[in-house]
């Protein structure tokens, strides 16, 4: 039987995640313009033996300068903007549901990752970020007996 370290704040972390999910939901009060929500990205995160993988749907990006990815203190931050050229004059527009504007999302990662070696690819409106895990520093401590 393996021993698992006691984590007294584990339950608080779960509660914080649920509150984050609740407050990033698409509330009607947070709508802008013609009913388009603020840029709230949906992100799937999973981990393998060697890496943490985040997959995010962001349709409409045109160039790599439109998205910024930052990893700091084991938090992944994705931000940027979607600029669509107006194909139709505003007076002829009846419905606008495709998101236009700035977006931002921060999420805690389930494991410690290294910012070096991160690979991000954008294909068919899906951003995939692969972050290599780091091994925790372990060292043996010698105890001095007197």
From TrEMBL:
Annotated ranges, domain CS: 38-144
Organism from which the protein derives: Paenibacillus chartarius
Cross-referenced InterPro entries: A-crystallin/Hsp20_dom, CS_dom, HSP20-like_chaperone, Small_HSP
Stated family: Belongs to the small heat shock protein (HSP20) family.
UniProt-listed CDD domains: ACD_sHsps-like
Protein name: Hsp20/alpha crystallin family protein
Segments traversing the membrane: none
SUPFAM superfamilies: HSP20-like chaperones
Record domain SHSP: where: 29-146
């Amino acid at each position: 039987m393996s021993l698992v370290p006691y984590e007294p704040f584990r339950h608080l972390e779960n509660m914080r995640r649920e509150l984050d999910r609740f407050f990033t939901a698409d509330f009607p009060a947070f709508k802008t313009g013609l009913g388009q929500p603020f840029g709230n990205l949906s992100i799937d995160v999973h981990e393998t033996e060697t890496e943490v993988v985040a997959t995010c749907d962001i349709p409409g990006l045109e160039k790599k300068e439109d998205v910024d990815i930052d990893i700091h203190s084991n938090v992944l931050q994705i931000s940027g903007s979607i600029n669509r050229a107006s194909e139709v004059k505003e007076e002829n527009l009846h419905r606008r549901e495709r998101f236009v504007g700035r977006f931002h999302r921060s999420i805690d990662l389930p494991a410690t990752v290294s910012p070096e070696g991160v690979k991000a690819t954008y294909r068919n409106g899906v951003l995939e970020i692969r972050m290599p895990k780091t091994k925790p520093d372990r060292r043996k401590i010698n105890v001095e007996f007197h």
